[in-house]
């Protein structure tokens, strides 16, 4: 029987095409969802209970309120900081620039649900918001070259953890994460780029 040899190597931006980018996005989100669900099961908790709809509208207000505050800070940072200090390597621009609106909505929904299940639903249960936020910042590796976006990802994650603790509902950070990704994606989609 022949052995299958798999070679892992870092893809450079000039090697990345739309199909490969989407493949990587959906693969990593699928793995995030799977790892989060398995982790929660090992915690002897019910994954579906985490997605129970809240009894109160305050969960919505926590999610939308934090999203508005984070988008405002992000806007201020983008105005004050040099563009290269906030650079993610062009991944977000490549992901959203030519994407149809319906697909941006789907990406924002998938990413917010998968990442919040793993980070807030599973990891934060064991390690709390601080260590979860450090891990969240580290996995957003494309920002690690610059301390400002890395710090911002950490603070954003801590905010998501905080509203999860305050509301007791995973829907608060999911709503917040979804709104941020959706608005950021739409802004990149409709942004005018100078030639």
From TrEMBL:
Residues 99-183 form the CAAX prenyl protease 2/Lysostaphin resistance protein A-like domain. The chain crosses the membrane at residues 21-41, 61-80, 101-119, 148-165. One of its GO terms (molecular function) is metallopeptidase activity. Keywords: Hydrolase, Membrane, Metalloprotease, Protease, Transmembrane, Transmembrane helix. Pfam families: Rce1-like (PF02517). InterPro entries: CAAX_protease, Rce1/LyrA-like_dom. Signal peptide: none annotated. This is CPBP family intramembrane metalloprotease. It comes from Paenibacillus ottowii.
């Amino acid at each position: 029987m022949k052995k299958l040899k798999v070679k892992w190597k870092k893809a450079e931006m000039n090697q990345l095409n739309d199909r490969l980018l989407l493949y990587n996005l959906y693969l990593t989100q699928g793995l995030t969802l799977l790892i989060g669900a398995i982790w929660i099961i090992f915690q002897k908790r019910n994954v579906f209970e985490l997605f129970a709809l809240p009894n109160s509208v305050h969960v919505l207000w926590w999610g939308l309120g934090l999203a508005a505050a984070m988008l405002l800070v992000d806007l201020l940072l983008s105005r004050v900081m040099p563009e290269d200090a906030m650079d993610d390597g062009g991944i977000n621009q490549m992901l959203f620039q030519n994407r149809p609106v319906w697909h941006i909505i789907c990406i924002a929904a998938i990413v917010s649900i998968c990442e919040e299940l793993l980070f807030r639903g599973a990891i934060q249960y064991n390690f709390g918001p601080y260590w979860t936020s450090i891990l969240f910042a580290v996995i957003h590796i494309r920002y690690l070259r610059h301390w400002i976006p890395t710090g911002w990802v950490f603070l954003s994650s801590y905010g998501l953890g905080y509203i999860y603790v305050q509301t007791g509902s995973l829907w608060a950070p999911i709503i917040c994460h979804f709104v941020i990704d959706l608005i950021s994606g739409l802004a990149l989609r409709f942004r005018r780029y100078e030639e």
